[in-house]
Protein: Nuclear receptor domain-containing protein
Organism: Caenorhabditis elegans
Amino acid sequence: MQCKVCGANGAEAHFGGESCRACAAFFRRYVHSQKLVIECTCLHRLPSSHPCRHCRMEKCIATGMTMCKVQGNREKNKVRGYYPGYLPVISTLPTSVIPKSCDNILRTVANWVDLDQTRKQLRGENFFDHNLTQVTKLSKMDSKLLWDLGEVIFSDVSKFNSFDKDSMIANFFPKWIIMECAIDYSLNQEQFQSFIGSIEYYKKCAHFYGSSMPEEKRLDDEDTIKIFSKFWDWHYSEIAHPIFLKKFDKIEYMAIFLLLLFDSAYMNISDDGVKLCQNIRKVILRELQGYQSDKNCSRYRLAETVDTVRLLEKAEGKLQEESVLCEFHNLEIDEDHKKIFQIKKI
């Protein structure tokens, strides 16, 4: 079998592609290279010479070789190296470790299929027609299903005490509600563009909130729309559309899910819980960085992905503002849902 990089005989599987041992060794050295930038030098070489390191590396990647399958150097005092895709903006990420795979994120993607089916059964066929009261009645079970997935992916999750677990769900769930709405918008953007601002859009808003009020205290549809439609408008313009423009794929969406679930930036978690979250997040960030590097994403892609978490924190504040108005106008909200939203977050 011929090497798909240089054409030499004796090719075999290396790092996900097929090449000779010489090209495999070159690929490994390139990944471990400490040079910040490696540019094409073919214009300065003789026509009869071999391709430059840059072009040879591109051929390696074209055969299917991936950087995440190269093991890190084992020298005890190794100088931290930089490779294409390295992002210095993430200070918590160990730069000396090159991820072998993104197994945990991939397992989340794989398990999400069954989880999605379970959640659809929980919500029923007519979930789109539910009002706010009906939606909030599902929060306790829905948040438990999502937490259970985290425990399937990372067995150490079982070590969190019950207080930390409740706090982490309260920290996570409101932001994930917002994120799922943004994902739905991203997957159906053309339909949403024609729906937002339409008569049907405002009718849906009036039903969602109005039918959740006690009959004797229900506002007329015009007032309901005036009070609550601004939150829908803000969400779609300030959150959903910016996330749509990022063009995330399912691996990146699942990475965001895990980063939200194991957010260590709250003071309502014990010190042991914070440390465990930080360790899990390092694994997620390392896997995500390796995945995006293999896809030859922009060197700012990881920062853009992590920044989505900050965007959702901003949106959570708006959601809390909406919750206050719902309470003021006597909307019937499930008690378990209230408990999730009312846990103290610092």
Summary: The chain has two domains: 1-90, 103-342. The chain is about 60% helix and 0% strand. The first helix runs from residue 21 to 31. The first strand starts at residue 12 and ends at 14.
